[in-house]
From TrEMBL:
<dbReference type="Pfam" id="PF12867">
    <property type="entry name" value="DinB_2"/>
</dbReference>
<keyword id="KW-0732">Signal</keyword>
<feature type="domain" description="DinB-like">
    <location>
        <begin position="37"/>
        <end position="191"/>
    </location>
</feature>
<dbReference type="InterPro" id="IPR034660">
    <property type="entry name" value="DinB/YfiT-like"/>
</dbReference>
<feature type="signal peptide">
    <location>
        <begin position="1"/>
        <end position="21"/>
    </location>
</feature>
<dbReference type="InterPro" id="IPR024775">
    <property type="entry name" value="DinB-like"/>
</dbReference>
<protein>
    <submittedName>
        <fullName>DinB family protein</fullName>
    </submittedName>
</protein>
Amino acid sequence: MKLRSVFLFVCAFVLSTTLFSQNSLSEKDKAHAVKYLNETETELVKAVSGLNDEQLNFKPSEESWSIANCVEHLALSENNLMAAIKKSMEEKASAETIKELQMSDGDLLTIITDRSNKVKTSKPFEPSDSFGSYSETLKAFKDRRKNSIKFVKSDNVNLRNYVLNFPFGKIDAYQAILFMSGHTNRHVQQIEEIKADQNFPK
């Protein structure tokens, strides 16, 4: 039993060291991230397609966000999350720090896409008519998503080697890219909830 435990420890150590030493993101991870970024952008565009100004600005309650607010929040988040990812890459994490990461990619996406867990956003992510009009807001999101996809496709470093501190724990920079996509899906769900409200303008 003791020999088996030592063997498993050595295997885990070798695996984590190998992942840490890789200089670039695996093609599988890269393709998965790009696919999810594209898919969630498509979901958002489809969800808001054809809506008029009254529908875009409808709020189910005084405390609720409108669809236009959700889109602005996503445009702001895309920019701020990418800035945080790039900031994390200024200093390469140690192998010991990488081993502290406990959350799987799947667990992370479950957390962010679960609408039953409501979280109040922080000030930099709050909608405040930052872009002047809804059309400019949606354009800003699309432009920023395009840049995010370009970043993942062209970057030659291993995003798994960098760590960000999120309120729910530490994640690697690759997971932060997945979080960005999952966050879009979360607010697409919110948009669909707004559209399903009994008072939503016809």
